[in-house]
Amino acid sequence: MASIAVGGSLAQRVGYGGHAWAFLQYLLGFRLLGYEVVFVDYLTPGMATDEFGQPSPAARARSIRWFAQEMRNAGLEDSSALLLDGNDESVGLSRAEVLERVARSQFLLNVMGFLTDEEILEAAPRRVFLDIDPGFGQMWRELGLADPFHGHDDFVTIAENIGEPDCGIPTCGLPWITTRPPVNLDSWRPAGGGERITSVASWRGPYGPLEYEGRRYGLRVHEFRKFTDLPRLTGESFEVALDIDPSDRRDVELLKGGEWALVDPELVAGSTDRYMQYIRSSRAELTIAKGIYVDTRSGWFSDRSACYLACGKPVIAQDTGFARRYPVGQGLLSFDDLDGAVAGVHEVCEGWHRHARAAREIAEGYFDSRKVLKALLCKLGVA
User: Fold this and answer.
1) Which one in 77, 117, 138, 199 has a CA-CA gap of 20 to 30 Å to 102?
2) What phi and psi, each to the nearest 5 degrees, are found at residue 50?
3) Which residue in 26, 347, 61, 350 sits closest to 187, CA to CA?
4) CATH of 197-367, one of 3.30.565.10, 3.40.50.2000, 3.40.50.300, 3.40.50.10750
5) For the segment 41-84, what is each residue's pLDDT rounded down to a tens digit?
6) Helix, strand, or coil (residue 309)
7) Class of the 3-184+369-379 domain?
């Protein structure tokens, strides 16, 4: 049986159900296409830290449990490995088994270049970089800060507008292949309507703003502040499972003052199952993107929004340039400013059933993992 290897960072982000699903969509999707899959992660002492940023045995144990639990729930316990501390200890497959499976794979799909183990990279017949956070890596390379693309043979991004005249993401002279976020439709089934318009998001995320060619590219926090009056202006109920640091207390007060309900993301999305249930229990999604995605006109579309669509949940999304690539107006609505967001919310709430049906149809037509991954394999020249 043909095999595909995927490298990514799951164990380091305990309680991020949506982050885990980003990997599972590829793993389960490739398996649906008839491929054997193997998922490779690694954990060093410095990656598992306590609240003070110090290496912690308790944090390490929690990361290991999280990895094992999510792989077991997905039926991937015999197709995954968490390599520990840079030696031969592992959870799941042994290092020798990983090397053997990677060596006979069609390619290693290295998500954000996370996997840097030279022995494993050398074993792969082909190394494919998968960019799911577009703009950062490309600008880092152009600014001489880092080169996450080094050592890879192919370059895939979900920034579907990269290389187009109005897209501000530099190509770095690399031959980019574009793809869409895949969704395993067998797992994500339609559900009835909920009470609140929701989303799951990080306020700042792991990277800082960037200055590139005289322009500053911001984060989600810088965009979200523009829409704090949305609940008050629409009269609808909004809730966001927001990963926000306590030091951002002024922003918390701003959101609460704008009538946003905030919920601890670990409580409602702290596992892949809870994350799915939270989306299925929602009425619709409001997506506010990172500033870098918006200002570069990247064409980025959220893998989370694709899950909402698959569940028959309408999505009202800040336009990053994706509106030229997907049908907008029914099930998926785009906006550029506060007035556009207000209009989109009213439209969805007044015709929810119609938009819910269209949402699932969009998922089936544009994000079905069978179609998305088959197209990606074709672009990579893999039969």
Assistant:
1) 138
2) -85, -170
3) 26
4) 3.40.50.2000
5) 999 988 888 777 788 889 999 999 999 999 999 999 999 999 99
6) helix
7) alpha beta
